[in-house]
Specification:
It is a single chain. The chain is built from eight helices and twelve strands. It is α/β, with parallel strands linked by helices. The chain has a domain of 163 residues: Rossmann fold (3-Layer(aba) Sandwich). A hairpin with a 2-residue loop joins strand 1 and strand 2. Helix 3 packs parallel to helix 5. Bound molecules: adenosine-5'-diphosphate (ADP) and magnesium ion.
Length: 261
Amino acid sequence: MAGSTLEIKNLHVSIEGKEILKGVNLTIKGGEFHAVMGPNGTGKSTLASAIMGHPKYEVTEGSILLNGEDVLEMEVDERARAGLFLAMQYPSEISGVTTSDFLRSAINARREEGDEIPLMKFIKGLDADLDFLEIDKSMATRYLNEGFSGGEKKRNEILQLMQIQPDIAILDEIDSGLDIDALKVVSKGINKMRGENFGCLIITHYQRLLNYITPDHVHVMMQGRVVKSGGPELAHRLEAEGYDWIKEELGIEDETVEQNA
Ligand SMILES: Nc1ncnc2c1ncn2[C@@H]1O[C@H](COP(=O)(O)OP(=O)(O)O)[C@@H](O)[C@H]1O
Ligand SMILES: [Mg+2]
C-alpha cells in the first residue's frame, strides 16, 4: 500500500473541562516530515496524546482520520495496529516487560495471527537496529525504560520506531535532554525511516533537531491552534527571532500561560 494519510480537522480537545486545543488542522501524508514548534504550554503534547487516544484528553469537536477511517472510534491498541506510533515526551517505565519482549509483541500485533515474525529474523533485525543506534545489546533484556537514562529512553523510542515500522509517527520532544552525539544518532534513525510509506510529525521546542532532520513543512502552534505554516526557513526564523513577531503579525494577545507543561 502506498503511503498513509493522517488528517486532523478542526480538533478541539479539553483536559478536565478546560479547552486546550481550539481547532487544530493538520494533514500528514506518507513521505512527508512535518515539524510542529511552539512555546511551552501551547498544546503540542496534548495534540500527540489526543491522536493516540489518552483517556484524559477529551475530543469535543473535530475529527482525526487515518486513510479516511475514524481514529477517534478506535481503541488505543487499534490505533497502533492501524499504523500510528507515538514517541512520548516522557516515556513510561514498564516493569516486568523486557525491551525485546515488548518489541516482539508490538511487531506481531501489526501482523496477522499465524504470521508472527520468526524468532531468528526478529533477533537479527533487532541486533542490526541496536548497532545502528549505537545502543548496548544489554538493553534488549532490560525492562522497558526502567532505570534508563533520559538519553537511553529517547534512543529506545527510536529503536521502537525502526522495529515497528509504523505508517505515521508522532515524535514528541524526541530531542529533549539529548547531548549532541545522542541527538545525531536519534536523527540518523529518524532519517532512515524516510520513504513514501512513512509520514512523520516531529514536535520540538527547539530548532536544533531540525539541523539534522529537514522537515518538508513547519507549523507554529500557539494557544491551541496552528497559527502559521511554512517551509524549513520558518524554523530558522523562530530560532533567530523567537515567537513575538508571529504574535504581532497575527495580532495574538498574550494570555497567562500555565508553564507547568
Ligand atoms: N494531564 C494534564 N492535566 C492537566 N492539565 C494538562 C495536562 N496535560 C496538559 N495540560 C495543560 O494543557 C496545556 C498544554 O499542555 P501541553 O500540551 O503539554 O503543552 P506543550 O506540549 O505545548 O508544552 C498546559 O496548560 C498544561 O498545563
Ligand atoms: Mg510538550
